[in-house]
């Protein structure tokens, strides 16, 4: 089913309904499902965090450049959401002071990063689409994931600061304000269509990363 991109549909509804299939596929990827159920290993959680480091380095670079020059991006890309300092702290706690020398971007992560790096700071629909896919999911599902990683793999609080969004206050009102800001964007039908296409692609890029993580998992390799 194709979701209409006319102004009769709010942007938050357009994104939710238009990415539903891709979202479900990413959410139900075997790697993430197995990880959350506690069926993998601590190494898998570390590998996931490492891939996020590369992805968020590129994502937050373009978001930072975009919000400096574009009002639409500035209204969405709240700097309090930035995850890069947390990821650096988590990896230092997980791996040690030389963590940068120990991690490598997987092929799918490299493609994801390359795509983010091609986005212009003036391309508000593309930046906002990628921002929406990652951060809104982090804020919601991330809280559950953090509890599962702690319970199943013994990760300490200092290894899970990526999932700590205390800087934004209570999550439900923040999510509402985020969606209200989306709905207030003065996007044309063409810009809405671009926003949706980029969001769908972002979910596909994430699914590809999960597939690569499954391929290198010390547990899943033998299956």
TrEMBL record:
<keyword id="KW-0479">Metal-binding</keyword>
<dbReference type="InterPro" id="IPR016053">
    <property type="entry name" value="Haem_Oase-like"/>
</dbReference>
<keyword id="KW-0349">Heme</keyword>
<protein>
    <submittedName>
        <fullName>Biliverdin-producing heme oxygenase</fullName>
    </submittedName>
</protein>
<dbReference type="GO" id="GO:0006788">
    <property type="term" value="P:heme oxidation"/>
</dbReference>
<dbReference type="InterPro" id="IPR002051">
    <property type="entry name" value="Haem_Oase"/>
</dbReference>
<feature type="binding site">
    <location>
        <position position="132"/>
    </location>
    <ligand>
        <name>heme b</name>
    </ligand>
</feature>
<feature type="binding site" description="axial binding residue">
    <location>
        <position position="23"/>
    </location>
    <ligand>
        <name>heme b</name>
    </ligand>
</feature>
<dbReference type="GO" id="GO:0042167">
    <property type="term" value="P:heme catabolic process"/>
</dbReference>
<feature type="binding site">
    <location>
        <position position="16"/>
    </location>
    <ligand>
        <name>heme b</name>
    </ligand>
</feature>
<dbReference type="GO" id="GO:0046872">
    <property type="term" value="F:metal ion binding"/>
</dbReference>
<dbReference type="GO" id="GO:0020037">
    <property type="term" value="F:heme binding"/>
</dbReference>
<keyword id="KW-0408">Iron</keyword>
<dbReference type="GO" id="GO:0004392">
    <property type="term" value="F:heme oxygenase (decyclizing) activity"/>
</dbReference>
<dbReference type="GO" id="GO:0006979">
    <property type="term" value="P:response to oxidative stress"/>
</dbReference>
<dbReference type="InterPro" id="IPR016084">
    <property type="entry name" value="Haem_Oase-like_multi-hlx"/>
</dbReference>
<dbReference type="Pfam" id="PF01126">
    <property type="entry name" value="Heme_oxygenase"/>
</dbReference>
């Amino acid at each position: 089913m194709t979701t209409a991109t006319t102004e009769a549909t709010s942007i938050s509804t357009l994104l939710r309904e238009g990415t539903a299939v891709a979202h479900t596929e990413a959410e139900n990827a075997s790697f993430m499902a197995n990880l959350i159920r506690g069926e993998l290993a601590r190494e898998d959680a570390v590998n996931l965090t490492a891939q996020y480091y590369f992805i968020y380095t590129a994502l937050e670079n373009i978001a930072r450049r975009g919000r400096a020059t574009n009002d639409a991006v500035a209204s969405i890309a709240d700097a309090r959401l930035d995850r890069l300092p947390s990821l650096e702290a988590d990896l230092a706690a997980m791996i040690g002071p030389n963590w940068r020398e120990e991690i490598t971007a997987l092929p799918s992560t490299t493609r994801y990063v390359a795509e983010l790096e091609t986005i212009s700071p003036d391309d508000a629909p593309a930046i906002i689409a990628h921002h929406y896919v990652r951060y809104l999911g982090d804020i919601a599902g991330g809280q559950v994931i953090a509890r599962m990683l702690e319970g199943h793999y013994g990760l300490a609080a200092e290894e899970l600061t990526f999932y700590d969004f205390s800087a934004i206050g209570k999550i439900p009102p923040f999510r509402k304000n985020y969606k209200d800001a989306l709905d207030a964007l003065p996007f044309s039908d063409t810009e809405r269509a671009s926003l949706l296409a980029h969001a769908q692609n972002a979910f596909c890029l994430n699914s590809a990363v999960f597939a690569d993580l499954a391929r290198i998992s010390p547990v899943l390799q033998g299956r």
